[in-house]
Amino acid sequence: MSPAFAHEPVMVEEVVALLHPVPPGVVVDATAGGAGHAAALLSSQPHLRLLGVDRDPAAVEASRDRLARFGDRAVVVHARFDALAEALVSSGLDGPVSGVLFDLGVSSPQFDEPGRGFSYRLDAPLDMRMDPSSGPSAAELLDTMTEGELAGLLAAHGENRFARRIARALLAARPVRTTGQLAEVVRGAIPAAARRTGGHPARRAFQALRVAVNDELGVLERALPQALGLLGPGGRCVAISYHSGEDRLVKAAFARAVSGGCTCPPGLPCACGAVPEGRLVFRGARRPAPAEVARNRRAESARLRAYERLAPAADPA
């Protein structure tokens, strides 16, 4: 694998353990990245084959390189993960889907490569696209947004107090073309006293723009029901999220599948005829061990949830 795409996978031992009981079949790594999770799964579980999916061409190349030693047990395709069904067909891998893994957010190589424009720590063109060949860049998106749209986006990502001030400053500074310029405008819009706490003052603005540029929440919202629907009986979906917007979507999708889409009032027996499709493997979300966070600070915000598809209920005789 190219050193430029070296990436330490988060909670890899937990992911391998959670997917160990699944039946033989295909595991879909919907966010292949540098193939750290994928390689660990294929090494530990010879009964599995794997489809790796990534929208970043550099990640696809790195994953193919790292997984080449597994031969035809691994196929990696360039696609967004809201097209899992189409990717599965195009891969040529047949058999039941035994697992789906989502390791969400941005990988370390994307953050650390200056030309990608994801980081406020490196001055670079303001791009932020996970697939550099598709869609408008962050700079182009900023050129088209109204003050209200931008303030709403910032507020949705935790910048509640100063969202309007930052939006007004960014519109006044247009065109904003580099990460350094974006970080400086955001910093200047926040009062000095507020800049002394809470980390880098531009952190939330960068996250908000990145999520919007890549339609991250929209893609995830479309992908989750598709992924759960592809699972065969006993198959599992494991999702690692890194901010509250992602985690809410994962939690809600798993809850709908567990209830079968029940619409009855909470706390009352189901009377709507909903049939549960699966179960939670454990309640709530798991966090990385302190030792992993100490070794890899980017694991600190990770939240892991897991779901298992149930076998269909037998028809009454």
Main sheet makeup: 7 strands, mixed
H/E element order? HEHEHEHEHHHHHHHEHEHE
Shape: globular
**Total strands:** 7
What is the average of the pLDDT values? Answer: 90
Cα separation of the termini: 56 Å
- Runs in which pLDDT lies below 50 for 5 or more consecutive residues are none
Helix percentage range: 40-55%
Number of helices: 13
The assigned structural class equals alpha/beta
Strand order of the largest sheet: 3-2-1-4-5-7-6
Share in β-strands: 5-15%
* Radius of gyration over all CA atoms, rounded: 21 Å
* Oligomeric state of this protein: single chain
How are the SSEs ordered, and which strands pair?
Layout: H1 12-19, E1 25-29, H2 36-44, E2 48-54, H3 57-67, E3 74-78, H4 84-91, E4 97-103, H5 108-112, H6 138-144, H7 147-156, H8 163-173, H9 179-189, H10 203-213, H11 216-230, E5 231-241, H12 244-259, E6 278-280, H13 290-295, E7 303-309
Parallel strand pairs: 1-2, 1-4, 2-3, 4-5
Antiparallel strand pairs: 5-7, 6-7
